[in-house]
Design brief:
2 copies of one chain form a homodimer. Chain A is an alpha+beta fold. Helix content of chain A is about 35%, strand content about 20%. In chain A, the strands form 5 sheets. In chain A, strands 1-2-7-3-8-16 form a 6-stranded mixed β-sheet, with helices on both faces.
Chain lengths: ~450, ~450
């Protein structure tokens, strides 16, 4: 049986399961799986996996144990009621293994009044499905599940192992994927279907959160010249950060960033200072996100910011005596860096081409994923490719284009077949033979 | 009996009542008369006034009635449990009347850990008395009470009426003084012993609070170039306000402001924007205090700021389409403006000189008081002069130099005598005669 026959079978299977796949996504979106409330959505996924006769492991990560890990970050210590799920589709042997990873947690819906539909309603409208998590990233997870189901139901046997993971905590720092890595799960390659809008991200921007505290001197507003405004001094710091961002980005020549005006941005997301309109504010706190390039370490990036702010402070008499304090807090995502010519990237590119009919866009992602942990900690080169609209993620009226979920499912199914190797489907004209991918 | 005999009697009386006066101030500081909790301190004052056989009126202002007044501002609607006190010392006739006004409310103590002593302990240390309200302005109120008591106990009869007021709500917008004005209290002159550190403020800076909302466009921090940072745009607004402040102050040539680097400052006291380190902030709110010159109207100053910000917005493509919104909220203090050569100012200056031995500093205050209401609404020219340290008011470790409380009491007592006119004290060598002040 030729690979084009297989592709046709997969394609037809997906066409036949369009309603069922849409329904599964709808059910998942209707489980508001915000941090701490992932159990119902995970149960749906576990049930689905079990119906495919896969071994399913379900466990609540041990926060106390994880807390000692260098790469652990979470705002919480206990994951009771927040299970991870791993299912394994054992290969027949001698094939390359793959790890498929999606996160089940979603960010909060925010102000419900900003939504046109119930944020957890899973409403379908003009080929789109709306709801928190539709793009980020239940749509991608459904693509994975459909790919696995198609392979199983079509009786396709893969040679390499497929490890499917539905993890918690990606939005809060990656403790779910870390817990799976600590259990020993790794593979020859990994795919995370975060919403890339079907672009292939072989590299991912890392990021970490910073907090900069700027000190002034309080005084009554009527004699403000007796004080030093921490707000005015914080403006110098914001300008300093703009200079640092420019400096860091001017070094980046990676062609994957060709279409990106600021490959590794520094975003000041929160400013807060002062507590009385009539007083000169003596403290301003800035909190933000520093992008980290794929080839950089978090520690190098931290050091560069601290030194830059220290240098900047020397040019202001007040800041020289009262240097801004830089801290790192909260979540951080390790950057990911896989060579765009890595064999797995080539398979994925080719299957995209074969399915969609044109070359995929290959870029570096402007945000972090759990892929950094997989690539750097689990030694599992991870590529990010999935359906869904980045711009809609984390905002009101998040949606996904349903067609893209099925396109991604087809690309993923064919990538599994090509990467892991396939025992040919038995039919009347074929002998049981090993199909070797040709690329 | 000569005026110098009277001065000597007052001076000696105050020396003899040093401990009693200090004790009264201590008792007042020990009543934490923050907004809503003024009753105990007011009761102390009422008891003291009644012991001097003065008519005392005590009433809780009617918030519903006041709310309709153009000059009303308070964060609360009801003043139940927050009484005003007025006492009247009726003159013998034909003299000029005077209104003495002190506020009993104190601002919150803030972080107790920043205080070396209990903020409501009234601790005495090296000639200073520490505590919230010591300078602002229970010390000044005690100076008034001592002056009245000295005059009464020395048997001095004044020709003009003296109206003493201990009011609530000065720190929150002047509703206590407004309530007394609405009741009809007015006089030929008024004195407020706010902490001027014994300087004479014939003019007072007015002020009002503004809120400026700056809008941006949200985006993920990893693609921050897809958004517009409200923090960066708010920096333009802060710079604009600095320009406006410069423009407004460059017009001021009043010699009373000769020693003041910024006669009418614009203070941005609070900044708040964004809610997630990884998101581009779409809103920043600035809150601050705009100083208003003595000769300016609040409306003119408001108009100038709105026009300035509107003009500034034209120079930025984003702000042009999304102009910052300027609002006025919360407290505002009407500026006060009394001619430094007003007869009452001359009497006060002369009595300061006679008591202290050198010319007083005459300035314009860098903050508002209830004096603006008295001068502009009650047609009662008000001068601000009192003991206490402006720089200590509203901050931890507020204190007052006790000597200054008694110096102010002496100046006030003699000013009452000279302004209101005195029936001479009967002694063996004098006939009952009217003493006319000579200036």
């Amino acid at each position: 049986m030729s690979i084009s026959n297989v592709r046709q079978l997969i394609h037809n299977w997906l066409l036949a399961h369009r309603d069922a796949g849409t329904c599964l996504l709808q059910q998942l979106v209707r489980c508001p799986s915000k941090a701490g409330a992932e159990a119902a959505a995970q149960q749906l996924i576990a049930t689905h996996l079990q119906s495919l006769q896969l071994e399913v492991e379900i466990w609540e990560p041990d926060g106390t144990q994880l807390a000692e890990h260098e790469y652990f970050y979470s705002p919480r210590q206990s994951f009771t009621g927040s299970p991870n799920i791993v299912a394994k589709m054992k290969g027949t042997g001698n094939g390359r293994s793959i790890l498929l990873n999606g996160h089940i947690d979603v960010v909060p819906e925010g102000n419900v009044d900003d939504w046109r539909h119930d944020p957890f309603g899973g409403i379908k409208e003009e080929g789109k499905l709306y709801g928190r998590g539709a793009s980020d990233m239940k749509g991608g997870t459904v693509s994975l599940l459909l790919a696995l189901q198609a392979i199983k139901e079509l009786g396709i046997s893969l040679q390499g192992d497929v490890i499917f993971q539905s993890v918690i905590e990606e939005e809060s720092g990656g403790a779910g994927t870390l817990a799976a890595i600590v259990k020993g799960y790794k593979a020859d390659a990994a795919l995370i279907p975060e919403p890339t809008n079907l672009r292939i991200f072989t590299k991912q921007q890392g990021s970490m959160w910073f907090r900069i505290t700027v000190t002034g001197r309080a005084a009554h507003g009527g004699t403000r010249y007796e004080g030093v405004s921490a707000i005015e001094k914080s403006m110098l710091v914001v300008q300093g950060l703009q200079g640092l961002e420019h400096h860091r980005n001017s070094r980046i020549t990676d062609p994957l960033y060709a279409d990106n005006p600021i490959p590794v941005p520094i975003n000041v997301g929160i400013i807060q200072g002062g507590n009385w309109p009539s007083s000169v504010p003596d403290t301003v706190v800035l909190e933000g996100r520093m992008g980290v390039a794929p080839y950089e370490s978090l520690d190098d990036a931290k050091r560069e910011m601290v030194e830059w702010i220290g240098e900047m402070a020397k040019h202001d008499a007040w800041l020289l005596e009262h240097p801004p304090k830089v801290e790192w807090f909260g979540a951080r995502w390790i950057p990911g860096d896989v060579d765009p010519d890595h064999e797995f990237a080539r398979v994925l590119r080719n299957e995209y081409y074969a399915t969609v009919g044109h070359e995929p866009k290959v870029e570096a992602s402007p945000w972090g994923t759990d892929g950094g942990l997989l690539t750097k900690l689990a030694d599992t080169p991870c590529i990010v490719f999935g359906p869904g609209v980045t711009e809609a993620a984390h905002y009101p009226n998040e949606y996904i284009v349903l067609d893209d979920v099925f396109t991604a499912a087809e690309v993923v199914a064919m990538t599994l077949i090509q990467w892991c190797g396939m025992e040919v489907i038995q039919d009347e004209t074929d002998t049981h033979d090993t199909y070797q991918p040709q690329d």
